[in-house]
Write a structure and sequence with these properties.
Blueprint (H helix, E strand, L loop, with lengths): L15 H14 L13 H15 L1 H4 L17 H4 L4 H10 L19 H12 L18 H11 L1 H4 L15 H4 L4 H10 L15 H12 L40 E2 L1 H9 L4 E5 L3 H6 L6 E2 L6 H4 L8 E5 L5 H12 L5 E4 L2 H7 L18
Parallel strand pairs: 1-5, 2-3, 2-4, 4-5
């Protein structure tokens, strides 16, 4: 297996109960005294807690039962080919750090997410519970392939789904993120190409591509494995109570034209901000993504923690728009919650935040937001 960069290892603490049991067994094996047997958490309690964590944070995109593709082509987590070849560290790093510039944010509190290390351990265990057979033994030897030849095969066979630069597409996940490639061995990638992923649009290419062509594609994908220069540091999310919610409070209301009475074009929101119109912008993503890059003046209201904002929002007809990276699932959940509370002038930014960024519209980042009323 390829060596994993030091910083690729997810920040995960070994549960204390595991250490205690190990010491106990070691003492027994060495003929020493056996300490009083610790009582591990009841399985039912663990399962209930883990299921609640999954339902709150993961089901929106990955589906209630891990079936995947509930939104934004999120991975089918209960797929056996995936589970039986993915390590615990692979799963933990994906949860902790996310996949940059995708709808998968980092959920570890160290990076601004809502989960601590123990909760991520619980999630990994919960997901592992869907595995129906033993791990598949993979060949640890690095693949010997030609990345130039692989780029041609990839362009012909893979780019239509995964994107020309493996950035992901409408029917397939991204393959070019460091948090993915640093934990995905050559054998893991090769297995997925050969066998596909059952229950997803990903077919197996065994019999379609020969062994060398598959190795070449793996070598091509490995080119994208570049560790980020900047490792996210701990940044505490801001207090909603301390934030200014309304952009340009003395401005006129924007003139929005909604599609299906729900979606507002990103360009109209950009213009409203530039014209200093009165509105509220909500970022429905996990706060870790809000910290990295956001629409100017956006208030962090993660889809899994909507209640705190309700009491603070004005009920005077101020326009409230929300966005996410899905591009509609998380923001849609926030807008649905607001409409259920009687907020009628609400909308989802139609194309989502990645379209906003790709268009070169203004953004900001960091833990301390500037005054939304200030010029951009």
């Amino acid at each position: 297996m390829r060596a994993v960069p030091v910083r690729a290892v997810p920040v995960r603490a070994v549960p204390v109960r595991a250490v205690v049991w190990f010491v106990a067994l070691l003492l027994v094996a060495c003929g020493g005294a056996t300490p009083a047997s610790p009582t591990p958490p009841a399985p039912a309690t663990f399962e209930a807690d883990a299921a609640q964590i999954y339902a709150r944070y993961c089901a929106l995109c990955h589906g209630p039962d891990g079936e995947g593709y509930a939104s934004d082509n999120a991975t089918r987590l209960r797929g056996q080919g995936f589970l039986r070849t993915a390590t615990d560290d692979f799963l933990a790093l994906a949860i902790a750090r996310g996949r940059s510039h995708t709808a998968m944010a980092g959920y570890l509190d160290q990076f601004g997410g809502p989960l601590d290390e123990a909760q991520i351990d619980q999630l990994v265990g919960f997901i592992r519970g869907w595995q129906e057979g033993p791990p598949i033994a993979l060949d640890d030897a690095p693949v010997e392939g030609d990345p130039e030849a692989g780029s041609l095969v990839y362009g012909e066979r893979c780019a239509s789904c995964h994107g020309a630069l493996a950035q992901g597409g409408e029917s397939a996940m991204s393959l070019n993120r460091w948090t993915f490639l640093s934990q995905a061995s050559d054998a893991f990638l090769r297995y997925a190409i050969v066998h596909g992923r059952e229950g997803t649009p990903m077919p197996g290419f065994e019999g379609t591509l020969d062994a060398q062509q598959i190795d070449d594609v793996v070598a091509f994908l490995r080119r994208f494995e570049t560790e980020p220069d900047v490792v996210p540091r701990h940044m505490a999310p801001p207090s909603i109570e301390a934030m200014t919610l309304i952009r340009s409070p003395d401005g006129e209301a924007p003139d929005f034209t909604l599609r299906e009475e729900r979606f507002v074009p990103a360009a109209q929101v950009r213009d409203a901000i530039a014209e200093r119109r009165r509105l509220i912008v909500l970022d429905a993503r996990p706060t870790s993504d809000w910290l990295i890059e956001r629409i100017p003046g956006a208030v962090p209201v993660p889809y899994y923690d909507i209640a705190p904002i309700i009491a603070r929002l004005p009920r005077d007809g101020t326009w409230i728009v929300a966005y996410c990276g899905c591009p509609h699932a998380a923001s849609g959940q926030v807008i649905d919650a607001l409409r259920a509370e009687g907020f009628e002038r609400t909308a989802v930014i139609d194309e989502g935040v990645w379209h906003w960024i790709e268009q070169g519209y203004p953004t900001e980042s960091g833990p301390v937001p500037p005054d939304p009323a200030a010029p951009n």
